[in-house]
Design a protein that fits this description.
The radius of gyration is 30 Å and the shape is elongated. The model has no long low-confidence stretch (mean pLDDT 80). α2 packs parallel to α3. It is an alpha+beta fold. The chain has a four-stranded antiparallel β-sheet with strand order 1-2-3-4. It is built from three helices and four strands, in the order αααββββ. The relative contact order is 0.15.
């Protein structure tokens, strides 16, 4: 009496054979390799990209106001006018923080971007809003992004 388990019976049966290859006579030309062109960005992908750019830009701008990041790191992303306004506001914030107010030193502590929403205005313009949570308060940020020749650029930045 031979008992065969399922494992042995599966090993005893031969594996199915693959079909034999055929040789075709004639000259075969290799297929011309075409350059792989990525598909154009859809509106959904573009909106996600805008939200990601907005999130990182807002986080960096709040860190500039806190004094933990130099404003020049945003020079590629911000319009020169926006960058100058951000630098001016950061200088004013530092001046207030060094004053005698007990709560001024807690401004812009531990900022984090809670949410970002983007709205398409035209093919080359988006407007976005963000909610930023800090240690002692919640603030809103609005920005306008315009497509430049190489990248998206923030042309308006309003921090509440």
């Amino acid at each position: 009496m031979n008992a065969v388990t399922g494992i042995r019976s599966a090993a005893a049966t031969p594996a199915p054979r693959s079909p034999a290859l055929r040789v075709v006579s004639g000259t075969a030309t290799p297929a011309a390799k075409t350059a792989a062109v990525p598909p154009p960005l859809r509106v959904v992908d573009e909106a996600r990209e805008i939200c990601a750019i907005s999130r990182s830009t807002v986080q960096a701008a709040i860190e500039v106001l806190a004094g933990t990041r130099p404003a020049q790191q945003l020079s590629r992303r911000l319009d020169p006018r926006c960058l100058a306004a951000l630098q001016h506001r950061a200088a004013l914030t530092r001046r207030v923080a060094s004053g005698s107010s007990p709560t001024a030193g807690r401004l812009h502590r531990n900022p984090s971007v809670r949410s970002v929403r983007a709205c398409r205005v035209s093919d080359d313009v988006y407007e976005a809003s963000a909610v930023v949570v800090e240690e002692s308060r919640v603030r809103a940020v609005a920005l306008r992004l315009e497509r430049g020749t190489a990248a998206w650029r923030v042309t308006v930045l309003e921090i509440g």
